[in-house]
Amino acid sequence: MLHKVLTDTVEGCQNLDTLTPCFLPYCENSVQAGLAASRIQDEHQRINLSELLDIETDHFCSKVKGDSMEGAYIHSGDLLIARKTQQAEEGQIVIAEIDNESTVKEYHFDPIRQQVTLLPHNPNYHPIIVQPDQTFLILGVVERVIKKV
User: What is the pTM for the complete model shown?
Assistant: First the structure.
């Protein structure tokens, strides 16, 4: 049953403890979204993606597989960048493990029942109510979503 509930998984958590800056060529000219403008010139400048995305060594990235978070604009194949933490605030999107299976969902905690609920953002899926006999661990809070177009 748990396997069917944990439909969205995060793959290959890549530890960024040894973060190496990634530099890409940067074209200073803006790209027009309206009428076409002059050709983009190669300015031979570089931009540090680690700085641009505000990624530090307390972050990790993981690839999404599944569609339960589509309503939060998180789609299969997206790359999530999460800050490593074992705590989350109400309503944050987290990468968590339940009984050693990972998932990405919206975090909720009921202080009266002392119960964690993980909400999908797709009406085809049910919330995951973490049971007392299950092992539950927050791995991180999602801060960025990188998409491939």
Answer: 0.74
